[in-house]
Write a structure and sequence with these properties.
By secondary structure, the chain is α+β, with helices and mostly antiparallel strands. Strand 3 and strand 4 form a beta hairpin.
Length: about 150
């Protein structure tokens, strides 16, 4: 993650906090810096428990409760995208503009996922937007089924 991306996300956070009359916090800033650091050891999609564990290993002083609360806030702001992947918890990923509107195929057996982009879905969203006058700036498509590996194990 480049410094420009970190500046962009900090700008989004600052604007949100200002518009909602909220104060900044060092825990929130540490968490955002950690998420944007490519050396953090997180996968592209991560869950709150993994983030809390890694932050504890780094000795950041960010509490588990703060991680859960702020991941949810970052999702509300648009810094993170969240998906369930058919599990009982959310998976998050940075909502960078270069990866916006990618979709997921999720295996219900093993939990693996495949990311893809499909221009047809972009065209559908654009058509809906034009027809309704509703400006769509983001959308999500998740399909659940059985991956090739699990299908071959039958």
């Amino acid at each position: 993650m480049t410094n420009d991306c970190l500046k962009y996300y900090f700008g989004m956070l600052a604007e949100y906090l200002r518009s909602h009359q909220m104060r900044g916090s060092s825990s929130r800033e540490k968490l955002l810096e950690f998420l944007c650091d490519k050396k953090n050891g997180l996968h592209t999609h991560f869950d709150a428990d993994t983030v809390a564990l890694r932050l504890a290993e780094y000795g950041s002083g960010v509490s588990r409760a703060s991680v859960f609360r702020n991941l949810s806030l970052f999702s509300d702001i648009g810094i993170l995208s969240k998906s369930k992947f058919g599990e009982n918890h959310f998976h998050y990923e940075l909502a960078g503009t270069e990866r916006k509107n990618h979709q997921h195929l999720i295996c219900k057996k093993c939990g693996s996922y495949i990311e893809f982009e499909e221009n047809t879905l972009k065209k559908i969203a654009a058509g809906i937007s034009k027809k309704t006058g509703f400006e769509i700036d983001d959308y999500k498509f998740e399909a659940f089924g059985t991956c090739k590996n699990c299908g071959e194990k039958k």
